[in-house]
Amino acid sequence: MSAELSILDLFLQASLLVKAVMLVLLGMSVVSWAMIIKRSQVLSEASSKAERFEDRFWSGMDLSQLFQEVQARKDNLSGSEQIFYSGFKEFARLHRSNGKVPEAVMEGTSRAMRVSLSKEVESLETNLPFLATVGSITPYIGLFGTVWGIMHAFIALGAVKQATLAMVAPGIAEALVATAMGLFAAIPAVMAYNRFTAKVGKLENNYINFMEEFSSILHRQAFASPKE
What we know:
The protein has helices at 7-13, 16-57, 63-71, 80-98, 102-124, 128-158, 165-224. The model has no long low-confidence stretch (mean pLDDT 86). It is mostly helical.
């Protein structure tokens, strides 16, 4: 039957503008799926690394020894490890030079850890704005292609004396494909954005809790030091 048209047939029969809309939507969908797969791997790895490091941190080993181990691979740190490295490094530096004023030591240490926390969260949020953009605009891009295609179908229909449904149906069908492609691009992007945002929020809370607990340990060490 002539009604059995494939998506490829509908694409080939569409007007130039509708084809451009479909190609844009296809490109955005492919890019968003690549980002979804990459972000999923990154966030899963970040969660695993944070769990492993905190298990080691709370195992009771000496913090100086842990710092030496972390420092040996300082170029490949992330998450809780990076916060720990920045905080302990700044604490040791300030404690040597300004040990008589523990308040200043703790203020500088907290500032260093907050900077690291901000950078880590920013790194985790990479690509999320793009997914949010894809999820919000692709339905409208697809709708634009549909409106344009239907408009042209009815203009062509008005040019004939005897109009039938068979004459206008293919044009409407190929136009509606643009809307379908817009939804196909938007739905996974929105779902992934919401899922990743929740994961980033959970990791951020985990980093903040670790930072506060680590600050408490350093606070006790700073104020326990003998004052001359």
